[in-house]
Every structure is written in C-alpha cells, then in structure tokens.
Amino acid sequence: MKPAFKIKSEETEVLHLKVQESWAKIAPFWPLKNLVAVNPLHGFEDLPFEEAVRQGQGYFQQKDLPEPMQEINRETIKWLQAFFDEGQATIKMPLRHGGLLNAMRQFLPFDKNICRSQQNITWLKNLPQLPEDIIAECLSYLHIPTEMHTQYLTLMLTTLPGWASYTQYYVAWAGSANQSQPYPLTCQDYTAFRLLLTCLLWPGAKRLLDWYDNATQNKSDELRLESLQQSESAYRISLLEKLSQQTVVNKASPNAQLVFCIDVRSEPFRRALEAQGRYETLGFAGFFGVPVSIHNDITGEKYTSCPVLLKPEHHIKENPACLSDDCQRGYNQIQIFKKLYQSLKYTFTTPFALVEALGIVSGFWMGIRTFFPHRAYFLRNRVSQKFSQNLPVITNIQSIPFEGQCQYAERALKMMGLTTHFAPLVVFCGHGSTTQNNAYATALDCGACGGHQGAPNARILASILNDKRIRKFLKDKNIIIPETTYFLAAKHDTTTDTVEIYDYEAPEKILKDATLLKADLEKAREMNSQWRAQEMGIRHQPGGAAQKTSLRAHDWAQVRPEWGLARNAAFIVGPRTQTQNINLEGRTFLHSYDWKQDEDGTSLTTILTAPMVVAQWINTQYFFSTLDNVAFGGGSKITKNITGKIGIMQGNASDLMHGLPLQSVFKTDHEPYHEPLRLMTIVYAPPLFIDRIISQQEILKRLFGNGWVHLLCIDPTEGKTYYLQRDLKWTKNF
User: Fold this and answer.
1) d(Cα 59, Cα 55) in Å, to the nearest integer?
2) 502 in helix, strand or coil?
3) How many other CB atoms are there within 10 angstroms of residue 345's CB atom?
4) Selected residue with higher pLDDT from 393 and 434
5) What's the gap between Cα 148 and its chain centre?
6) What distance in Å separates the CA atoms of residue 581 and residue 596, rounded to the nearest whole number?
7) For residue range 668-678, what is the model confidence (pLDDT) as tens digits?
8) Quick one: 695 exposed, middle or buried, by C-beta within 10 A (0-12, 13-18, 19+)?
9) pLDDT attached to residue 330
10) Is the pTM of this model over 0.90?
11) Band of residue 319 on the pLDDT scale cut at 50, 70, 90
C-alpha cells in the first residue's frame, strides 16, 4: 500500500511525484498494541537483494549525523511525541484536530528553541497554506537543486527513519487495520514539517547532500554476502537431506485432527503431540481464512484479525457467555479503578500522595511479583475472574452472510487439503502468548491476525463448519463431513505451551474425546517444554520443564520469555506426511497443501501471495534486527522507554525504534541466537504448475527474481527437486 498523495494542480505534480518517491523507500511500522513484522527494506524490494542492502546501509545505518541535523531530530521528536500520544501524556497537545502542520504553525512561534528571532516568526507566518507549497518554498529557501529534490526529500525521512515509518503506518495502513486517524495527517504534512524545522534551525542544510555522499563512499560492507550464501547453502543441503529421508507411513485413522498456525513455534509442538497417539496435525494461516474485525461487547475493544495485506470483510461481535449486565458491571469496576490510579499517578502533585497512601501495599505487591511470580499471576487471575473480566465468550457469526460462510468453509478446507477422512474431533488452534511487563508482547502473538491472538478466528471457522446447512453445501461440492465429526476452537499459548480448548458449548458426546485430548496435550506440553528449556538454557528437574517455561511467562523481570520466531529459515508448502517424522528444529513455517486438490492453482496462489509474504516479512525483520540492532532493531529492553503508548525509544529522546529488541535475537549482548538467512520456500508441486502462478503475480516475480526469497519445488510426480533462479527459470543445480 502506498501513501495517499493528492495532486492539487498540474504545476505541483512533479513535486508530488518526488515526495511520493521519497516515501516509497519507507516501510511502515505498527504501534505496540498490534506489532506486525515488516521488512525494514520493504521500499527497496524492487531492487536485487544485494543492491537493496547496499542502499539501505547508506540510508539507515549512518551513525554520525551532522550536529545541526541531530538538533533538528531532537526538536522533531519532541513535537511528534506530543502529536501521536495515545494517552500517556498527562497534558494532551491541543489543536491536534486540525492536523500536524496546522498545529505546528501555531505553536512554533512560541518555541524559542526553534524560532529564535522575530525574523524566523515572520518567515513562518508568511508561508503558504498548502503543504505542497510549503515544501516547494523550503526547498527553494535551502537552495536545493531541482535534480536533487528527490534525494533531499528522502534524506528528510531516512535521517529519522523510525518516526517516518510510524507516519507511513499512520497514513497508509492504519485505516486498513480498522483504526481511523484520530488526528489528520498526510505524508506531505510530515515532509513539510521536517523541512520547516530544517529551514529554521539549519539554513545551510544543503550540506546534508555532501555529508550523505561522503558517508556512503566511506561505508564498509557489513553484510558479507559470501558468508551469507555459504550459510544458506549449508542449511538448504541439511534440510533437503532430511526431506529426502522422510518415509511416508500410513497411520490408522486419527482420533483427532488439530489445525495449527503455520508459525514456526507450532512445528515442534505438533511433533510432540503426534508422538502421544493417533493425532494428525495440519498447518494453516492463523486467521483461518476469515478476514474479520472483532468487537468485544463488554470491553468495547475493536481490532482487525487478519493479515495486514487484507482488509476485514465482516465485523464480528463477541458476547460473554454470562449475563451481560453482570459482566459489564464487573468490567466497569475494574476500569474505573485503573483510570483513577493512572490519573493519580501521572498528574503533577498527586503522585506524592499516592506513594504515601499506597506505598506499603505497592511495595508488598512488587515483592510478590518479583520473588513469587506464579503466585502473583494466580492472585491477579482470581481478581479478574471475580470481576467477570476473563469469562468465556460466544462468537456471533450472524454478520457473515450464508454465502460468505459457505465460501470460507470450502476455501479453508481445500487450501489445507482437509476434504476427506475427517476425524471425530477437529480442533482449530489459534495462538497467542502470555508475558508480563513486556512492551513487545504483541510481537509474540499471531502475525496472520494483525498482531493479535487467533482464538476468535478459530471460533468463527469452527462455528461455521458445525452448521448443518454449511455441511449440506459442502456435500454438494464433494466435501463430505460425517455427522459424527465436530469442530472445536482452541488457543495455543506459545510461551507456556498450554492449549486451552473452548468446549463449553460442545455436546456431551464430544466432551469425552476432548478430555482425552487435553490429557495428551499436557504430555505434549511437557515434552516440548523440555526442548524449549534446552534452547533457552534453562535447568530443570525431570518433569519440571513446563513449570520452568511457565515461570518465564509470569516473571515481570524476564527479558526473554520465549524466543518467538528466532532462527526461522524456511517455509514448506505441502502435505504433513512429507515432514511429520523429521525434526525441523522449530525453524520452519509449515502450510498444509495438496496440489491435486488445487486444479486451477487458486489455493497455492493465495498461499504464496499472503502467508508466504507474511513469513518473508517476519524473516527479514529478524534478519535485519540481528544484522544491526540499532539501525533496524529495538535496542536493549533494559534501557528502553515507551513513548505515547505507541512505540519504544532508547533513553528519552532517541528515534522511534522500529524492530525487534536485542534480547529477541541475541543470547548475550554480543552473541546472536538468530541466524540471519533469507527465507527458503519449498513447494510440493510440479514446476510448470508453479510457473503459471508466478507469471501472473508481480509480487512473486519481485521476491523470487530479486533474491529476497529462495524458491525450491519438489515435484511429486517424479520426486526431483528444482531450484528457481533469478531469471525465473528452474534448474537442478544449486
């Protein structure tokens, strides 16, 4: 999605195009409430990977800005913090309803750090009204040559990339995330604001162009491409060797089938569950093919629960499985207390009285949270349950027309290859995470759900497939679901490895099967926790691994509650039978797929242009956050500060950090845990079948042709492996 630029007249069209071109280099950055992985060099994906890295290094990895530019950045940060604030500031910035540029034109004359003379104030007041005209005026004032306009406008963004990235999200993506702009802002406004400050604080800022040329000429190549290719080759050889040794075993009919998200954290848990008995697991994007927005009737919370590449098509209400008046009353009581506490904490004088009144209680509670995190978690849950905050919910799918429900049901089952041999119990497992005191918590939730937990989508699809009318429709499509099959929803907690099954509406005959499944899920939890504990270097007593990993989830001092998607490296699209006996080490996205059930290639097209693109964004976010954690990451969690409830700064006046924290990708301050590799996609389908899809999708031509993603296919018809070259031709030579 590109910024929405508006052409006002033919005279300014050329300048509009230049502004648009400068913003095209800026990737969006989502706020803390729904962190979504994105390639920080997303704006360079039309270039070969090597050239994109070189240009990205020049724009984003400059550590020594000219001092006047640093001063401009400090003043920019000061005002952007106030403008974008979502409730952290005690005194809210006035005049925001008129937009950033209009507000700043009224405020700047009173800011003596910026307007240092009457001449500055007069110049500011005499500027034209439209941002496009202000941009033109500022470029003229700074004596920027016409042929250098685009480069200079780009530097206005890349010298403070974090806030530019958030602006890109705010302008171009927030609307698709079901979030309206609370205050007007356009990309032209932001550019004009940056130029205004530059003119006022550094009239000789034309020298920024010379600085950039000198800095890029002296920049060393921090990414050793030869070493990268060797690492990728070693991983590819190892993975293909494992896949070649896979023997397909025909198992007895499963007692239950569980559909997990394609997330790399699901892969080791699926293996652990399959080891417990007759269970079949499948992989599917965690929004389960239903692009919706969720509205909780009690909390009033609204959010989009689908990939950011899609727009929600339906609005779903979640109602509590209790008397709504009681639930609402309990929730309101908690909210009133929270608001009162926050207001007392952040106003000027009351914090002193608050400390006097609640100091002993707060100190006692801090001690419990520090030394007995499990007990603190238990007590907090008891209070929440007492006030009806965490009660079961019922998902109301009536807003989805019957025709739409039929479409989602058929598409989902075909895409995951589940059209025959249904087990008596089929469970859709969305996923989320449990952490305490973690600003990056939503980064551990489901990327396919827009940085939220996937349980609501699981409930929606399960409800649809339990409808007899839907099953009749599917039967006409030759997808026959036995009457004895029942669909349930669940949530897999990736930090504790608990799986909560939502069976409170299930019939009695299903509860017995669900009880047996719950027991085996607990065994799988302990088995997988042993592996996770080893990866995190946790010592534990026999049988105590699950308790140790759970402790990290509830400990508010823990900087590494889990490894998230670190070490992700591959995306496999094919039947589970091709991978079920292989230890993929939690490094692989697994999407179930049967090319024989996809005659026109519709399912594979969707998989490669949506889930795979999300996986590529995740892969590149981890890649670059490891490569340079200051330029592309979030820095240390220990020294971070939350600003405006939207993002992270290091210290009190840094750029907005727009990547993963150091502790998410490094074992220590200097030893990385994540291995930076470009995503390797393996598809079980004939090459010609895949060719037809690539030829019709520009995004695939770009990602494969420019080397952002390596594509291999294993031809099921002949058992041979092919590699897609940069010229989009297949070869057997790697």
Assistant:
1) 6
2) strand
3) 13
4) 434
5) 35
6) 23
7) 999 999 999 99
8) exposed
9) 59
10) yes
11) confident
Beta bridge partners of 570: 588, 680
> How far apart, in whole angstroms, are the C-alpha atoms of residue 690 and residue 692?
5
pLDDT for 62 equals 86
Check: CB of residue 602 under 8 Å from CB of residue 685. Answer: no
- Strand 292-296 to strand 302-305: parallel, antiparallel, or no bridges (unpaired)? antiparallel
Average pLDDT of the chain to the nearest whole number: 90
Confirm if 267 and 290 have CB atoms less than 8 A apart: no
Residue 50 φ/ψ, nearest 5 degrees = -65, -40
At 352, give phi and psi (nearest 5°): -65, -45
User: Judging by beta carbons within 10 Å of its beta carbon (0-12, 13-18, 19+), is residue 97 exposed, middle or buried?
Assistant: exposed
Q: Which two tokens stand for residue 110?
A: 């009173």
Separation of alpha carbons 251 and 65, rounded Å: 63
Structure tokens at 285: 């994007």
Q: Which helix (H) or strand (E) holds 10?
A: none
Both tokens of 665, joined, read 């990708």
Instruction: Please state, in angstroms and as integers, the Cα–Cα distance from residue 179 to each residue in 162, 171, 289, 407, 567, following that order.
Output: 20, 11, 21, 27, 32
Residue position matching structure tokens 């950011």: 308
Residues with Cβ within 8 Å of 220's Cβ and at least 6 positions away in sequence, in order, are none
**Cα atoms in the 13 Å half-sphere on the side-chain side of 319:** 8
Q: Cα–Cα distance between 37 and 163 in angstroms, integer?
A: 16
Structure-model confidence comparison of residues 368 and 683, the more confident one:
683
pLDDT band at 333 (very low <50, low <70, confident <90, very high): low
Which tokens in the block code for residue 272? 């652990």
Give 125-183 pLDDT, tens digit per residue. Answer: 999 999 999 999 999 999 999 999 999 999 999 999 999 999 999 999 987 554 567 89
- CA–CA distance, 154 with 187 (Å, rounded to integer): 12
- Average pLDDT, stretch 30-34? 94
Rounded Cα distance between 581 and 574, Å, is 14
CB count within 10 Å of CB 483 equals 7
Tokens of 406: 């039929």
Do the beta carbons of residue 416 and residue 248 sit within 8 Å? no
- Answer for the pair 723, 716: CB distance below 8 angstroms, yes or no: no
Listed residue (538, 638, 644, 618) closest to 264, CA to CA: 618
Alpha helices, DSSP H only, in 126-186? Answer: 131-141, 149-158, 161-172
Which residues are CB-contacts of 233 (< 8 A; sequence separation ≥ 6)? 734
Q: Which amino acid, one-letter code, is at 157?
A: L
Contact 193, 77 (CB under 8 A): no
Question: Could you report the per-residue pLDDT of 548-602, keeping only the tens digit for each?
Answer: 888 889 898 999 999 999 999 999 999 999 999 899 999 999 999 999 999 999 9
How do residues 357-392 score in pLDDT, each as one tens digit?
666 766 766 777 777 776 766 677 666 655 555 556
**Which runs of E-coded beta strand occur in 375-496?**
393-396, 425-432, 486-493
What the block records as the tokens of 361 is 């209680």
User: Taking the chain, what is the end-to-end CA distance rounded to the nearest angstrom?
Assistant: 34
Task: Give the integer Cα–Cα distance in Å for 695 and 592.
Answer: 23
Dihedral angle computed from the Cα positions of residues 71, 74, 78 and 84, in that order, rounded to the nearest 10 degrees: 120
Q: Which residues of 702-719 are buried (b: 16+ CB within 10 A; e: fewer)?
A: ebbbbbbbbbbbbbbeee
Distance between CA 59 and CA 213 in Å, rounded?
11
**Gyration radius (Cα) of the chain, Å:** 27
Q: Which residues contact 417 (CB under 8 A, 6 or more apart)?
A: 282, 575, 592, 593, 594, 597
- Provide the token pair at 427: 């469970």
Q: At what angle do helices 149-158 and 207-217 cross, to 10 degrees?
A: 70
**Burial class of residue 398 (count of CB atoms within 10 Å of its CB; 0-12, 13-18, 19+):** exposed
Cα 664 off chain centre by: 14
Helix (H, G, I), strand (E, B) or coil at 11: helix
Nearest to 605 by CA among 620, 595, 590, 615: 595
